[in-house]
Amino acid sequence: MLIELAIAGLLVVGVFFTFVSAVGVIRLPDVYARAHTASQTDTLGAGFTLAAVALALGLEMPTVKTVILLIFIFITNPTAAHAIARAAHEEGIEPWREDQ
Fold first, then answer.
1. N or C: which end of the chain has fewer CB within 10 A?
2. CA distance 46 to 54
3. What's the CA gap between 55 and 83, in Å, rounded?
4. How far apart, in whole angstroms, are the C-alpha atoms of residue 71 and residue 46?
5. Are the CB atoms for 48 and 10 separated by under 8 Å?
6. What confidence tens digit (pLDDT) does each residue in 37-61 have?
């Protein structure tokens, strides 16, 4: 019962962060802010969701693969966001300012 509650809690937190990421990508004004929210909250959403999956699987080989996937996501999501922001900067896209 306790493990099932922990799994449900991790899933709820993961879905919350994924939802916040989706709303941020839709509502934020420029590519820099969108890349920031997509990398941080999406990484957390995937992290909590994969933690719930690993907890549900128990101590088996698929759990190890899930943890490896989690590490991969924690490395690649911020790297991709940095690459997107750098490409936008090199193309001369100005950050959004409130006085524009």
1. N
2. 12
3. 32
4. 11
5. yes
6. 888 888 999 999 999 999 999 999 9
